[in-house]
Amino acid sequence: YYILTMGCQLNENDSEKLCGMVEEMGYKPTDDYKEADLVMFNTCCVRENAEDKLFGKLGELKRIKEQRGTIIAIGGCMMQEKHITDKIHESYSYTDIIFGTHTLQNFPEDLYNTMQSKKKMLDIMDIDGEVYEGLPIKRTSNIKASVTIMYGCNNFCTYCIVPYVRGRERSRKPEDIIKEVKQVVSEGVKEVMLLGQNVNSYGKTLEEPMSFAELLREVEKVEGLERIRFMTPHPKDLSDDLIEVMATSKKVCKHMHLPMQSGSSRLLKLMNRHYTKEQYVALAKKIQERIPGVSFTTDIIVGFPGETEEDFKETLDVVREVGFDSAYTYVYSKRSGTPAASMEDQVDKDVIKDRFDRLLALLKETSAKNCKKKVGDIERVLIEEENTHEEGMLTGRLENNLLVHFKGCKEQIGTMADVKLVEEKGFYYMGEQIHG
Ligand code: SAH
Ligand code: SF4
Ligand code: F3S
Fold this sequence. Notes:
By secondary structure, this protein is of the alpha/beta class. Helices cover about 35% and strands about 20% of the residues. The strands form five sheets. A five-stranded parallel sheet has the order 1-2-3-4-5, with helices on both faces. A five-stranded mixed β-barrel has the order 14-15-16-18-17. Strand 12 (about 295-300), helix 11 and strand 13 (about 325-330) form a beta-alpha-beta unit. It binds S-adenosyl-L-homocysteine, iron/sulfur cluster and FE3-S4 cluster.
């Protein structure tokens, strides 16, 4: 089988489950779709350009399918959009299986039925799926593991399609999460990434409600686990308790990824984000004061409908004031069905390009400044791999997610080490291992 995953870490985690399921059916992985018997695409639709990419790939597959009868299965967020599945039926009708985000667990059955009946399968539910436990999983790393703690999103930011394709929020039970964490740790994993579209809403729908901060305290107790990361918290409901856990925990990495989207209170309101510029900055300051040295990253959208030069300057203001370590920056992409798609004053492409470049230039400054601050420090790192550029060198990840390259032997991969950051290279370091 061959799999191509688009989109976020939640989708990556779903793909790990797809791989786990088909490998239990006897499939073996290949990197070459031309020689695969089963090709799976796990799609994303958060931005528009992914559609062209998918249809391009499907076009390429037609001839290969004619030659060797490849089974083509497409799933993920984009398949929850009716205009997409309609287009596949019309123009790419040689696709065998279309499955949605709520029916992952049926995939082996869908695949089996397709093989038996040679009929096309469409397995999409509009209603919210339940939480399924115990699916097989084939993890991409044996050092770090992603653990989805909740599904869906209730926030309906006006630009975003995720709530429409992923359904309402539902949380996994803490005991199931802990069991999974214990399992991966027993297999050698040192770091877990807890995933959800808004982890601050974790636990609200449970029979026995529990907060995200409480969940972190439970995960922290797992022996042998070294590091905990999480994505994504929403600024509107980030609790003091969560800040406290990050400040005092030995395992929760002091790295806060807190999507801002815009620095303009006017736009934030139009985006339905439920916070103002001032509230965002105050929250960031509070976190930075309580957790000295915390690394701060964010998501920013440029060119939301109606964004003026003034609005954009407010975004630059916040970038300067908070001094982000890095940011994911996105050009606004119109998603049909979302409220923002029908807002007036869609911003001109050239204007967006100019703003985008200015934002990147400023972010380069703030991240370089932060990177310099740590030179000379001794940091605990997770050794992830051999450095491909130079023999005898290893690559480790700092708590703030940056990388450091240093001398060491490859038997150390997957363990923790203390490394002195000797030289900064803008967004990574060269270091020396401190032997205990
Ligand atoms: N749930 C997370 C992120 C989900 S999507 C959160 O709320 O932070 C990841 C990022 O994609 C978002 O933070 C946003 O910056 C970006 N994004 C979402 N929809 C977008 C759109 N229509 N156009 C451009 N960027 C978008
Ligand atoms: Fe989209 Fe907003 Fe939900 Fe994030 S919180 S997934 S941006 S609707
Ligand atoms: Fe994309 Fe779906 Fe994730 S739309 S960003 S893959 S939740």
